Amino acid sequence: MSQRPRAVCLLSGGLDSATSMAWALRQGYECFALSFDYGQRHSVELRAAARIAAALGAAEHRVAKFDLGVFGGSALTADIAVPKGRGPDEMGRGIPVTYVPARNTIFLSIALAWAEVLGASDIVIGVNAIDYSGYPDCRPEYIEAFERLAQLATKAGVEGGRIRIHTPLIRLSKAGIIRLGATLGVDFRMTHSCYDPGPEGAPCGACDSCLLRRKGFEEAGLEDR
To answer: Does the pTM exceed 0.90?
Structure first.
C-alpha cells in the first residue's frame, strides 16, 4: 500500500494542468487526476487529459460530468463566438467571453469532495495570474479564499485537518510554465490548448489560448511540436 500523501490534481488536458500534475508527482504525491465534461464546445481536451494521466502515471483518472451549457453565458458553453486575433493589451483588459461563470469554484468544490473521500489533504490546480486572459477565478486572492472556505466546509477541516490548495504556476509567465514543464519531462505534444478547435481537434491558432501558447514557447526558446 502506498505511503505517499494523496493529492487530487485538476487535469484539463492543457499544458498548465499537465505541468501542475508533473510538479505534484515530483513533490512525492500520489496523484488522482480529475477532469470535467461540463458541456464545453469540444471534447478533444478530455482525450488529451486521458493521455496525460496515463503517461504521467496517475493513480486514477476520473471525469466528472455535468452540463454548464444549461446556463450558457460563455463562448465555451454557448453559441457565442470565440475571440480571435487579440493582442496582449486587449487580452489584458476586462473579462473575456471565454470565461465560464463560476467554473473554478465548481471544479474545486468537486475536487474537494473527492479529496475528502480519498482522505487527501491536498488539491493541485494549474491556475495562473500572469498570462491568464483576465479570469477572476485564477487570482491568488481567490485561491486563498477558497482554501479558507474548505477549512470551514469539510469534515476534515472541522476535525482539525488542513486542506491545502496548491497553485505551483500561479506567478509564472507562460514561458516559465513551459520551461518548468520541460524540466519535469512533460511531453507537450499530448496537451491541447485551443478554445475553438476544428472537427478533428486541430488548433485554430488565433484564439487567446493559442496565441498565449505560441508566445510562451517563443519566449521559452522551445519548439511547440
So the answer is: yes
